[in-house]
Records
---
Amino acid sequence: MAVSIKPLIVVEDDSFLRLIQLVLDPTAPGELFEAFAHFCAHDVPDFRGWCEQARARVRHLYPADVRLVRDPGELLANVPGANALVVDALPVGAQEIAAAGGTLGLVQRYGTTTRNIDEAACSGAGIQVKTLRRRANISTAEQALALMLALARQLNQNANLISIEQIEAAGYTPTEYDRARTPNGNWARITGLKTLFARQLGIIGLGEIGRELALRTLALGMRITYYQRHRMVAAEEQRYQVSYSSLRQLLETSDCISLHLPRGAETRGIIGRAELESIKPGALLINVSQPSLIDRAALLCALESGRLGGFAMDSFYEEPADLNDPLLKFRNVIITPHLAGSPRSNSLDDIAELLDNVANGLS
């Protein structure tokens, strides 16, 4: 569907999707530009240059009227005359299509799944539906895998321990082996190392990031089980080679557990005292999602009791936090400062690809 006048693009008001307004709409607030320039400065110091390059790639869309909407009501109110919709979680169905009045040519999902989009209704109206495999989601899955491997191999505890003095100071008892008769592996005599091959990974929330993690851990030879409110269809389970279980069974049987749930009242504290007391002894727990998923006091108790083999998280309960936080005293804990989706180029490249999709869909 060619657009000869200034296009109207209605965009869900997601923190990254606001970049569409900065690139395409000359009336975008200056404070929004300054906020993103500051946000990207350490990775993309020339943010204005990035905006100009992204704009040049989709020149026929500029200038556009880009309207940010926060809820289904705002979407419905702004969709009349729209040429494209860009949504993350907001629903798009027959009502929104009818309200557009025949101008809508494209619905772009900010992700790969289309549960919130009525594809049959879109197809019937001649509207394209496009998806995006987000680099930031892939990066977050990589962070979860890195943390899992680091805990299993105790990298945070033992990196750079190469001398007798260092190893003894760390509490180990290094030795000399009979090299004429035995190998020299682990002469530091470090105990508790784990191999992930043939271990069970339990993924709580098999959304887009959870699925990216599943793809990567399959390559390690892990068995994958998952839990979420709604079971996937059999074809999707087969695609990712996963099996469904209850939350309790997942906790009791998994060697590694990774959390991938959204923030919300229904997910807050989903891992509490009862769940941590039922977790398989020695299991590794990884949270690259929301800190609020795990009850903080219960987590501390589980670490103090020794039931957890290791714990890692990417976004802490407070940012920044207190360097004397009690969670930092455990050698089998890794906390990173909200790095999972980084570098910024991941999300900027996502937006650039999304804009390409919109431009091609409306050309």
Note: The chain has two domains: 8-131, 137-154+192-335.
---
Amino acid sequence: MQGAISIIFFILILSVVIFVHELGHFLAARRAGIFVEEFALGMGPKLLQFKGKKPSQAPREEGEEPEVTLFTLRLLPIGGFCKMRGQDEDVPEDPEAMNNKSVKARLLVIAGGSLMNFLVAFVLFFGLTMLRGFPTTEVQHVQQNAPGYHAGLQSGDRITHINGARVGTFEDLIFMLDMSAGQEQEVRIVRDGERFDMPITPVRNHEDRYVIGFHAARRFGLLHDPPTDPNIPFQRVGVFEGAVASGEQILSHIRTPFRLLTRLVRGQNMPEGGGVMGPIGIAGEIVEIMPVVMEFGVMDTILTILSLTALLNAALGIMNLLPIPALDGARLVFLVIEGIRRKPVPPEREAVVHLVGLVAILALAVFIAYRDIMRLI
């Protein structure tokens, strides 16, 4: 029963994330004066549909009803789309067709989906940060005889980089240490306004994670009472600090795929949990996590759902901006080329690139789905 509820949660979260993305395209298209023929949530046969109120301004025959946007809900909750006039075909002399808009307007429309994902992710991360607080990259206490202790790490130090890579969140720090594989790392810290590097070699702890041996200072959220231990400093999250931390979380999700890709190209081992995971794998993780979370009560369940929604919004936002054929990122590349050349790439050539990319993506999706299923088994 709980497994079924977890799957329903996953479908709802995924539907919300896709809706947010397509809403970004829709609002940007409306602002640019592009007519949206259909706004759909889901794929496959239509379950529900209704017509919008804003009519198209395109010329029409006398007595002909003006075209309006069709809003539809479809059977399969695995996607969605925002069909804009002139997006994939040439519609001459139509002021509401996308192909007749400026390069700048089309850039904003194509990027609108990811920008909306980032905006929603920021709002959710900010709310969660203000409620739950967050661990910082500041050192509160150094464990004796740990690698950090022998390297000279002190209370009050703030870790900013590892091997030259920015560390903006505590999750960044954990990720970078996991990628170290026990090799010496150049850790940059800020102490009393001064920056300097110190070599530290992480070691495995009892949880099979690489650590350097310190407790991070924490900012407490509105849901927390002051700690009973007087040795633990109590400092609530400020609004500005919460906004900065929320932005850092999004930047962390943007940086991580490129760090993993660089590691893959170099033939280095992936960190624990660093492999690629598709919808089936994510669903499997949620099915495993949600029953445990639901035992802690309604509030923890709601916060976990909001956290997953924020994570998936950030992930979908960056994924769609990657310059992969058939995704928004590749369309942005073609628009940039058009802006530089002062003329568009021939549509048939662009279509071939997107078709090849789509086939490659589908093949990759099948491979990832197979790996996810084998992992679950």
Note: The CA atoms of residues 142 and 154 lie 6 Å apart.
